[in-house]
């Protein structure tokens, strides 16, 4: 009981990185340390208590995304052509949107859509 | 819950390959990525031992990875290539000036010589200046057409055997799709070729033709290659953007579609009766063209005459604009009569040709003076065939051929002489002119590339 309470009340610290041009939509900042609030607090109607990439994208949209959100998001996921790396590994190996975030995870978004 | 590498090396996989669906570790991915490009190069015989090869380098992900991989493979498999970097400075403040710094970094990192050619030096105009004239609607036309030719010019200066460009599988699939969407059968047929270029021109090769964009980006990321990624400050091409979005959506559902679209483009056969514009050389600047006078020369003429819209749209429209312009000029000077007389006087044309061909060597900007005459030739061909004196045009050709040292005089002559008859028709039938730009623009301005 006590431990459950602790998890709920704790925040989740993550490293968020943007590259390949994706940073242009986020004040040109490539690396950030963020602290996510308890999921129930961010999204009271949420069934689960665990943050997944799906909710992280919502949080990013509301807190970090500065402009032209359609260049980053499409539907409930990232826009096709934006690669997501979870601790430097392709998110396609980790269930993509369903991946449950762990403390100190590094989530990186790399755009392939910017030319040279 | 790490996934083990598919090759059974014992390490954990870092990515899922879009092409095969395999989960591979970093080392096995590098090996597969490089080996496939090596296979593409050797299977298509893109290079010969001892060749000098210019890599079209923009500082972006594709050309950076191409330079790195070519250097690696050149050493590993003893290609014996002399690799160099060729960059084009379009003169776009805040975009290209930054990316050129990345190219310079590549030069130092990969120890390759670098040649930078600017639009300003080649054409007398920067893209910033062109945009100030034309606005932001058709600027990609100028940029794409000029870049395409600038690469040819640079390659000629460097004396290389071929130009390697960073077009990847996604780009090619996108171009196939674009050409289908536009009904551009001529380009549809050509766009999947791994080597392009007609005789007398420096061929372009695409070693990354079968390499997925995702893998290029992942490779650059894991290899920590420095590349430049930003959007062009000018508006990107909307139509291509939609094709790109469509393709990416489909790729998400079924990654193999990229290879399948390329395969479709490669194996599709075009009906005999579909007229395909042949590639030849421009009668003014002698670089590759699909028309008598290449798009770059027409665009440049428009800029220099204060008719920046010239060359946007069909060539018949350009002719009409020039006719109006020339008539006005002649009226202003009160020499309309003389001009007509001059036009019909073939001997004076020869004299002018001599004067002009001498000038051409020195500077491109001189086109300003010469275009009246060139245009008149084109017009008289159409409206009054008797005005074309075959002897005169052959003399002109001979002079140009000699001047530029082309070997295959007869075949070039035939092509050029044929132009006068068919030029007007073919330009009406094939929507050729409007499209050159799209292919090329997308490269740099946030879409993808350097042109097909």
Automatic annotation (TrEMBL), chain A:
It comes from the Eukaryota. GO terms for cellular component: cytosol. C-terminal thiocarboxylation occurs in 2 steps, it is first acyl-adenylated (-COAMP) via the hesA/moeB/thiF part of the MOCS3/UBA4 homolog, then thiocarboxylated (-COSH) via the rhodanese domain of the MOCS3/UBA4 homolog. There is a cross-link at residue 116 (Glycyl lysine isopeptide (Gly-Lys) (interchain with K-? in acceptor proteins)). Acts as a sulfur carrier required for 2-thiolation of mcm(5)S(2)U at tRNA wobble positions of cytosolic tRNA(Lys), tRNA(Glu) and tRNA(Gln). Serves as sulfur donor in tRNA 2-thiolation reaction by being thiocarboxylated (-COSH) at its C-terminus by the MOCS3/UBA4 homolog. The sulfur is then transferred to tRNA to form 2-thiolation of mcm(5)S(2)U. Also acts as a ubiquitin-like protein (UBL) that is covalently conjugated via an isopeptide bond to lysine residues of target proteins. Its main location: cytoplasm. It holds the Pfam family Urm1. It is found in: Cytoplasm. The keyword Cytoplasm applies. InterPro entries: Beta-grasp_dom_sf (IPR012675), Mopterin_synth/thiamin_S_b (IPR016155), Urm1 (IPR015221). One of its GO terms (biological process) is tRNA thio-modification. It comes from Spodoptera exigua. The lineage of its organism: Eukaryota, Metazoa, Ecdysozoa, Arthropoda, Hexapoda. Pathway: tRNA modification; 5-methoxycarbonylmethyl-2-thiouridine-tRNA biosynthesis. This is Ubiquitin-related modifier 1 homolog. Belongs to the URM1 family. PANTHER family: RURM1 PROTEIN. HAMAP family: Urm1 (MF_03048). The modification 1-thioglycine is found at residue 116. Keywords: Cytoplasm, Isopeptide bond, tRNA processing, Ubl conjugation pathway.
From TrEMBL, chain B:
Residues 281-310 form the Cytoplasmic tRNA 2-thiolation protein 1 C-terminal domain. The keyword Cytoplasm applies. Residues 53-229 form the tRNA(Ile)-lysidine/2-thiocytidine synthase N-terminal domain. Gene3D superfamilies: HUPs (3.40.50.620). This is Cytoplasmic tRNA 2-thiolation protein 1. One of its GO terms (molecular function) is nucleotidyltransferase activity. It is found in: Cytoplasm.
